[in-house]
Amino acid sequence: MATEPVCIRRTNTIEEADIIIAWLEEQGVEATVPDRDSTGVLAFGVTDAEGIEIFVANQETADRAAALLERHDQERAAASSVADGTLEVKCEACGEINRFPAGSRESVQECNKCGAYLDAEPGDQ
């Protein structure tokens, strides 16, 4: 049974991809940007609309990486919310991280990217 590499995340810059790859490797997950020379990088490290894709070896590894990244994103959002008085809520529809004023807690907001309705609770990511 052949296994196919799986894209686990897209980033806006190669630097962001490298940070995620390094963190995943610290967690015991090998990840890579397969073709660094043709990733659509424009001036100053910013990419085109497709972004830079980070891959892992197979679906099993992708599931583990996704769980690790989700937990990390939640922990980061919770810490950020406390530190700067904002809420960070991940949209379940498109994956966008949305920031709302702390006073928005326990309200319904719209995703800045896709317009889906979100409950403004940092723990609901």
Outline the structure in words.
Residues 41-47 have low confidence and may be disordered. The longest helix has 26 residues, at 59-84. The chain has helices at 14-26, 59-84; strands at residues 6-11, 52-56, 86-90, 97-101, 108-110, 117-119. It has two helices and six strands; from the N terminus they run βαβαββββ. The strands form three sheets. The protein has a two-stranded antiparallel sheet. The chain has a two-stranded antiparallel ribbon with strand order 3-4. With 125 residues, the protein is α+β, with helices and mostly antiparallel strands.
Brief rundown of the structure:
With 125 residues, the chain is of the alpha+beta class.
How does the SSE layout of this entry go?
Blueprint: E1 6-11, H1 14-26, E2 52-56, H2 59-84, E3 86-90, E4 97-101, E5 108-110, E6 117-119
Antiparallel strand pairs: 1-2, 3-4, 5-6
What features would you highlight for this structure?
125 residues, alpha+beta, two-stranded antiparallel sheet, 2 helices, elongated
**Alpha-carbon distance between the termini?**
35 Å
Q: Which geometry do the CA atoms define?
A: elongated
Order of neighbouring strands in the sheet with most strands: 1-2
Percent helix range: 25-40%
Q: Describe the largest sheet.
A: 2 strands, antiparallel
Helical run tally? 2
